[in-house]
Design a protein that fits this description.
- This protein is an alpha/beta fold.
- Helices cover 43% and strands 15% of the residues.
- It has 15 helices and 15 strands.
- Strands 3-11-10-9-6-4-5 form a seven-stranded mixed beta sheet, with helices on both faces. The protein has a three-stranded mixed beta sheet with strand order 1-2-13. Strands 12-15-14 form a three-stranded antiparallel beta sheet, covered by helices on one side.
- Helix 6 links the parallel strand 4 and strand 5.
- The chain is globular and about 60 Å long.
Length: 405
């Protein structure tokens, strides 16, 4: 007799085989070095890293490492508790104050991750008489968080403000309305029109929540994010974000908002109430990261310059890119198979990138997503462009014998 466990095992194995055969199986590559512009495999093969969120090169910065070491010595490895029990120490409060001040918001609350922050914010603030208006391409964490609350859900077409306004006009009877958007859409590198979203929120008496995971630390004159980039500081009601990308690259997330919103999240946000507190070394390292960003605006300038150089070089070579300016640079391919082959050949030649295809992105736009860092040198960029050209010619994506950059 086949047991339920055996039946499930066979069904899962068949599903995994199907993923393999369709070319949709995700493989993890194991690194044996810190997260830097170049990373090492087990045989110490060095790869130029073009797929990291390490936008400002802070993941292995010595001052951040030292801050983490000091916190480890002073506070230990972990808190062994949720924040509201005995998991809050003074480092958490300092980081929350530092984050709020950096973003020019009233208050902030720290979560184990931004996924947890987005999973907790909607259920804590919204009820059946409320409504959420979400961009169709919002991050999975926002989608999952919205599913957990009882508010009515409206999805507007990606970056289509006319569609959003039509939905807002039809939803005048709700008690509380909230517009939700990524500040930067991670698969496309598109920057949301935050100023226009602010205008619509004010016009229809709605709140505005922005997920700034790919904006905090790098967008805006001082790196405060998409609200600074759009010159609407103080006009976005809720900002969620992460310390796991530009702000040191470790872990942890945050929500910044008004004092009453943050106070209610401390009372009701389930991931905050039922998860262990952020470990002291990560908390201290994240604080140090914000401190460094405030002192070194030249890192942001270098990042945007690198993004400009790479984008212009790829366009000159003849690659098809999603237009933009962000250091997320999607290089479009014709098929998922072509994207996977491109990534594989680039890896063989020492350039580490990841292919993305359906269901992560739409079926008609498989891609290689390149992510630049301020720590990439001009020689790194030249190597990347030369290697993309060589592989592109080998695969027939580019015409042969073009002038080498």
């Amino acid at each position: 007799m086949v047991t339920d466990q055996a039946s499930m095992r066979e069904a899962l194995q068949e599903e995994l085989r199907s993923l393999h055969s369709l070319g949709l199986y995700k493989k993890e590559r194991v690194l044996f070095s810190p997260q830097e512009p170049s990373v090492a495999l087990q045989d110490q093969t060095k790869l130029l890293n073009l797929c990291s969120n390490n936008y400002l090169g802070l993941s292995n910065h010595p001052e951040i490492v030292e801050a983490a070491k000091q916190a480890l010595s002073s506070y230990g490895f972990g808190m062994s508790s949720a924040r509201f029990i005995c998991g809050t120490n003074d480092l958490h409060k300092q980081l929350e104050q530092k984050t709020a001040a950096f973003l020019e918001m009233e208050a902030a609350i720290v979560f184990p991750s931004c996924f947890d922050a987005n999973a907790g914010v909607f259920e804590a603030l919204l009820h059946q008489e409320d409504a959420v208006f979400s961009d169709a391409l919002n991050h999975a964490s926002l989608i999952d968080g919205i599913r957990l609350c009882k508010a009515a859900r409206f999805r507007y077409k990606h970056l289509d403000l006319e569609d959003l306004e039509t939905l807002l006009q039809k939803a005048q009877g709700f008690r509380r309305k909230i517009i939700v958007s990524d500040g930067v859409f991670s698969m496309d590198g598109e920057i949301a029109p935050i100023g226009q979203l602010v205008d619509l929120a004010q016009k229809y008496n709605a709140l505005l929540l922005i997920d700034d995971c790919h904006a905090t630390g790098i967008l805006g004159a001082k790196g405060r994010g998409s609200h600074e980039h759009a010159n609407v500081l103080g006009k976005v009601d809720i900002i969620t974000g992460t310390y796991g990308k530009a702000l040191g690259g470790a872990s942890g997330g945050f929500i910044a908002a008004s004092e009453p919103i943050i106070a209610m999240l401390r009372q009701k946000a389930r991931p905050y109430l039922f998860s262990n507190a952020l470990p002291p070394p990560i908390t201290a390292g994240s604080y140090a990261a914000i401190d460094l960003i405030e002192k070194h605006p030249e890192w942001q300038s270098r990042l945007w310059e690198n993004a400009k150089i790479f984008r212009e070089g790829m366009l000159r070579l003849g690659f098809s890119l999603i237009p933009g300016e962000h250091p997320i640079v999607p290089v479009l391919m014709e098929t998922a198979e072509q994207a996977q082959k491109m990534a594989s050949l680039l890896l063989e030649k020492g350039v580490y990138v990841i292919p993305f295809f359906y269901p992560v992105v739409p079926k008609d736009s498989p891609r290689i997503r390149v992510q630049l860092s301020s720590s990439h040198t001009k020689e790194d960029l030249k190597k990347a462009l030369r290697t993309f050209q060589e592989v592109g010619e080998n695969l027939g994506i580019l015409p042969a014998n073009k002038e080498t950059l």
